[in-house]
Amino acid sequence: MMRVRGARAKARRFTPLLLDDGEHVFADFECVVVAGRAGRPCTGRIKVCSRSLIVDPDAWDTPVTRLPYASMSHMDLSMRSGAPALDVRCRIVVEMKHQGQDTPYVSRESIDDNWKVTLPYSDLGLEFPLIRRLFELRHDVDRADKLAGIVHERVQMAVFDTSAISDIKERLLTPKAVPCNVITPLQQSLSVMMLTDSRLYVQPIVQDAGRTGGSCCVTSHPISKVTEVFRRRYAMRHIGLEVFIGDPQGASVFLAFDDTSVRDSIYEMIAAHANIPGQKSARELADEWSSGVLSNFDYILALNRLSGRSFNDFTAYPVFPWVIADYKSQNLDLSNPDTYRDLSKPMGAVNAERLAKFRERYKEMPDDQPKFLYGTHYSTPGYVVYYLVREQPAYMLTLQGGKFDSPDRLFVSVAETWESCNRNQADVKELIPQFYDVSCTPRFLLESSTFLGQRQDGSAIGAVHLPPWAEGDPRRFVSLLRSALESDHVRQHLNEWIDLVFGFKQRGQEAIDADNVFYHLTYEVCKCLSVCDPAVGLTRLYQGSVDLDSIHSETERQCLLSQIREFGQTPSQLFTEPHPRYQGGERAPHSPVPHSPLKAVPRDNAAAADSASADQIAAMNGTEPLSGQDGSRIAHQYALQRFGVHQGGVTGVVLDPNDSSTVVSVSLDTTLKVFDRNDGRVRRSCRLDDQGFALSCVTMSAKTAVCIAGSWSNRLHVYSVSAGQCIDSVAHAHDDIVTAVDLYDSRLLASASKDASVKRNPGVGVRRFRTDDARNAVWDLRPSGIASTPTHVLMEHESGVVAVRFSDDGLVASVDQDGVVLVWDTRTGCSSHCLTQVHKQPVTGLAWIGVDLATCSIDGTLAIGSVSARRPLHQVALAEPLLSLSIDSRLRLYCGARSGAVHVCNGIDDIPVQTLSGGTGPIVSLATCDDAVVAAVAGDGVVAIWNRLC
């Protein structure tokens, strides 16, 4: 068996959040850097940016360093060891990401530090003119305009990698690459996009060197999975397009184009080829809400989406109202009208005394200038970051120039924030959707960073102080807020708040009458209105004075964009008449907030299943319709099929991430099988362990059609589905049976064992050669396989590890037989959180639910624990021993039982939904997708599959 090791991709700490506002990356090179006269060579990457050079060292204990052009006194080419070197002298350097953590940036002054940079794999002579040109612009008065020209040049030079197109049969809808910006929170990435009749492709103009599997990092999204497409306003220009992938409340891609016509053209092409329903109008949504079809939360979220608000754009983030006014009582009485905030008034008008001061200032403003009551807004990037600083501290560092805000200005107490919004003349902010998110642990309320400092009274910034009625429980706090939002009182008055934010009181005379006038730059361009203000007589209200398309100077444009980011943006107006009141009718159920709304869309490279001929499997039983038992959530009907795949008991199953109809199973009979769950045909079969030892677990890469299986011989086996053979094996991967394996982003492999260890290996890096059909890929086996030694070994467990799982953020959770759950950071190899004493008997399964962890046990209990709070949150008894655990995209937990049943529970609150019966033996492994549950049945070689009917 041929075995050639591939080089491990080094973890990178650079993210676009480290860039200055409006800064772009133009190039990225592997480099060797020497800093100072006595400095030692340091390998890493160097980013050539519009305002600085940024060095990202390979050494984790060396910070990422920014060298601003404005601080450079010298730049030239010199020779070092016979190779050209970039010679830079810089008075001030900025150090970031110490030990990979989001710590405040450190500006270090020195007497012209000398930096020498060489590019071992690039021609510095070819790249130097661009770097020198950027350096010479550092003090140019027309710098902004000239940088805009360079940006245009670089975008025009970008060439789309056509080899990334999944299928040569795809028909191009865009004849050439279309320039765009990918918009994510506080970031924009210069990119190009291509659209075919099957997929949407997006490629950054600078490739991410931290990725493996080639230099290209094209992201692709199947048009068939597009659920919604919205035209968006970005920076007060109608140039944005947001494409929602999969779940309508899930992830999305936000693109900003050069002009409206290009945006509209792309919109029409996607809409024509995607099977999506027509977009409902604001009036249709209002009718559904007023008749009880939509809940309050769903309706507010829909209006935000329709008016151009997006989780990807902090200048236009979804806005939700304060609904509770009582943050002091021991008990919250939702039947008392005094508990609630007056929704007929904007936040700035809730306090009559403060409103009088606003009105007085408004009256004294000169008539020849745009008048306003509130110099700030109810939604700005600063307010979003204010609420999210614990969950995403990097956002505040980006917005505040590398510093956290003063500890006394941070989000410390809900009651204090409410008081500030009622009394402070510079504070009229509303809330964000996370305050009503009951689908996961509210991380934005929990202590997460040790770098936020201390207040003047000496108290450290920890978790947010909650009102007494929350009883110190963030989940209870959010749950009560959600109940208040959906209460009858709010339902009867929500139309009044909608009139202010999205409706007819947003602009003109009605806005003046409602004390709802904000700074003029928060409104997009519209016709100026002559209106009569009873308080001050006739005046002109210049609402809507932002028209970026009419500004040709890049300097002026950037200045206006900075003001937009400072003051926020008023939503697009949806209603010009009073919003209808709630008319009664059956109340809509409360639906969960989209889980992890800031989560980026994962890459979806098309990888295909093999269609080689194999033996037909005979189903042991016919299709058996099953009706789920009634529960507190919707149950579904399933049809059960059983396939006799193996000669020995099945020990592990996994679904192909790119084709959920393909099942991979491993067994005590030492074989791995690949078969179709629809027609029962075996497409691949391989005996992996040549010593005759049983296989114990399996996982599969989403990008390379490669499976990794653990063995009782302590080995890890790598099997290529495309090649149909084992391409690598790691002997003595552990000192005992390999009990669990999991992959992250097809790059990192975690394995666990009865020897109480957890190891992290670089993932399988294989090189793909294209044939005429990209779905039948051929793999060069020479660089494939797993590194000979793990990068990290965790030895903190004291009993055998039974499960290991990666989170969406790349954290690893492992659980041992004693029920100890450890969460550790793969970058450092150090455990960061620990959960203990969750169950009374051995734990058998583990799954991530966002930032929380679910575990099941032989004692028949299913528990959800908070990682950050280090304690269990919910627990339910299912009355029989549980052996396995899985979760689907709808946040439903599936528990495999010793009896052969699968218990389905709601992952938000552990409430049982239904029980799937019919398994012929203990369920030791589970795999789930939206329309099926696949179970490994111990003892008889059977894989049981429950296919969802409705």
Automatic annotation (TrEMBL):
It comes from the Eukaryota. Residues 286-582 form the BEACH domain. SMART domains: Beach, WD40. The keyword Metal-binding does not apply. InterPro entries: BEACH_dom, BEACH_dom_sf, BEACH_Domain, FAN-like_PH, PH-BEACH_dom, PH-like_dom_sf, WD40/YVTN_repeat-like_dom_sf, WD40_repeat_CS. Keywords: Repeat, WD repeat. SUPFAM superfamilies: BEACH domain, PH domain-like, WD40 repeat-like. Gene3D superfamilies: BEACH domain, Pleckstrin-homology domain (PH domain)/Phosphotyrosine-binding domain (PTB), YVTN repeat-like/Quinoprotein amine dehydrogenase. Pfam families: Beach, PH_BEACH, PH_FAN, WD40. Residues 572-593 are annotated as: Disordered. This is BEACH domain-containing protein. It comes from Plasmodiophora brassicae (Clubroot disease agent).
